[in-house]
Design a protein that fits this description.
Length: about 140
């Protein structure tokens, strides 16, 4: 990455920051800016300062920071819990397939693309009495 750019993680979302000259507090100075709004957040040369960054708006009306999200709904839950998200559709499908094998059959997984439901299935894990936990149905059992 060039010297004039930095990569930061804010609320689980990666942002590329760049240097710019902006008027801050009545004077023009070099600052680091980020986001679509190009908000200044730190003076150049003072990168070690702790700065609370302003919250960026979410990408969709569900409040997700990713284009694709995986939600889990239990038998007694009234609201789904977000358990994952990503921007690549192929990676989202692969993660959904993997999580499906580890989820108990009384729980429902949903793969969404924003508001569109791509897949909705019940978990496929099986309960193993010997190790007293749920395991993937194709998992090789090793005891001892």
């Amino acid at each position: 990455m060039p010297r004039d750019y930095r990569l930061i993680n804010y609320l689980g979302q990666w942002q590329v920051c760049s240097k710019a000259r902006r008027r801050v507090d009545g004077e023009v100075r070099g600052v680091w800016i980020y986001g679509e709004e190009r908000l200044p957040f730190c003076d150049v040369g003072r990168e070690g300062d702790v700065v609370v960054l302003p919250r960026l708006g979410s990408r969709n009306f569900f409040g997700d920071h990713f284009n694709h999200a995986i939600d889990e709904l239990g038998p007694r839950d009234t609201k789904a819990t977000k358990i994952g998200g990503m921007n690549h559709a192929g990676a989202a499908q692969a993660a959904f397939d993997y999580l499906l094998l580890l989820t108990p059959p009384d729980r429902q997984l949903t793969l969404r693309s924003s508001g569109h439901v791509m897949r909705r299935e019940m978990g496929k894990a099986v309960y193993d009495d010997v190790i007293d936990r749920w395991v993937a149905p194709n998992q090789e059992k090793r005891y001892g």
